[in-house]
Structures are given as structure tokens and as C-alpha cells.
Write a structure and sequence with these properties.
By secondary structure, the chain is mostly helical. It is about 45% helix and about 10% strand. A two-stranded antiparallel ribbon has the order 1-2. It comes from Rhizophagus irregularis. This is Serine-threonine/tyrosine-protein kinase catalytic domain-containing protein.
Length: about 100
């Protein structure tokens, strides 16, 4: 879309007074929305099938997920400057899933 390239280059102009104003941008985008309706784009989309294949995990794999406490918070807890509350422990929960052979 050549109009987009031209607008982008104007937005990047070294001289700020040559850049489009917010009002000019809003008007340009309104014009483009009328000129290039999204309904046409929706008609061109390729539908994604609902029956995607299931991804199987390797039997010897081990998945771990956890929420990391920020180092600042952890340092406060370790230095004793902060009391450890149940809410803090909730954010440190670690879940390990192992697959048995």
C-alpha cells in the first residue's frame, strides 16, 4: 500500500513540522477504513481447521512451570526485612509433572 509507505516516511521526517498531526493521522485512517473495508479481508481469510492434531509428549520428558519472585523481593525475604506471608508463598509455587515409564 503506497499510501502507507508515504505516511510512514512523513512520520519519520527529521523535521517535526513536516510530520503529520494527530488530527491528520485520524483523518487519514478514517479515509483508509472507508477505502479498504475489513469485510473484504475477512472474506479472503483461510479458515483454520478445528481438528488440529494433538501434540504428544515424550514419555521421559519432565515439564516444570513456576512463577519467579523478583530478586528484590527474594532478597528482602532472605535478609529478614520482610515477613513471609501466605500470599508470598502462593507466588512461589512450583509444579512438576513427570511421566512414568
Amino acid at each position: 500500500m503506497p499510501e502507507y509507505v508515504e505516511l510512514m516516511e512523513r512520520c519519520w521526517d527529521n523535521e517535526p513540522e513536516k510530520r503529520p498531526t494527530a488530527k491528520e493521522l485520524a483523518n487519514t485512517f478514517d479515509e483508509w477504513n472507508k477505502k479498504y473495508p475489513m469485510e473484504e479481508d475477512e472474506e479472503k481469510r483461510i479458515p483454520v481447521p478445528d481438528n488440529e492434531p494433538e501434540i504428544k509428549c515424550h514419555p521421559k520428558s519432565c515439564s516444570t512451570s513456576r512463577i519467579f519472585v523478583s530478586s528484590v523481593k527474594l532478597n528482602e525475604i532472605l535478609s529478614g526485612k520482610t515477613d513471609i506471608l501466605d500470599e508470598d508463598l502462593d507466588n512461589c509455587m512450583v509444579t512438576v509433572i513427570e511421566h512414568q515409564l
